[in-house]
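cron nightly-structures :: item 1 of 1
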Amino acid sequence: MSLVELIVQADERGLAASGVACLDRCLPLLADEGEVLRPLWAGIADGADTWAPRLAAAREAMEAAVINDETALLVRKMLAAAPSEWAAEPLRAWSDSCSVVALEIHQQFDVVGDRTIGAPGTAADGAYSDWVERCRTGVAEGDEGRPGIGPFTAGPLVTGELRRQIQILEILSETAGAAGLRQALDLSTEGQRVLRAVVSRRARAQG
């Protein structure tokens, strides 16, 4: 099943967790803000009861983050766009947008694939939108077992991010309660470490 199909079928819990997880993995772009979304994960567990106030607190914390470039600004804008209403349709639209932006950001930092580091364009100006949408709607298993890629070329960062997005939605559809959220958070933390390492290497290379 493609990533787009999983998003269409997800419930409020899965959609909220999917969107927050995308943000979580992109937090290395915001320097030391790696833990800022942890309370929001608890809000997902409680559902409608605490989602809105925890979202407001996360937005306030994110507003204090130092923004160094337009890609990091996208991460903050994604959180600002999150719906306060715990309802499937607004959460689905937001989760879908987070999925696209997270993949675009990872493609911007990738070293192989249809685009490479240093290629013209950024995630902020939509340079990767068409390419990313092909990945999101691709077959469930492509060359060498890479999920969602199908015949299209993807680098390791995009392949890993797409895999995590798919796995998180599958886990949350199959595993109820805190156990599913814990697995989703663990996957997201793994992805955050990967992107943080890439961002650090690029910063060192640029002096």
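cron nightly-structures :: done
Residues 114-127, 139-143, 145-151 have pLDDT under 50 and may be disordered.
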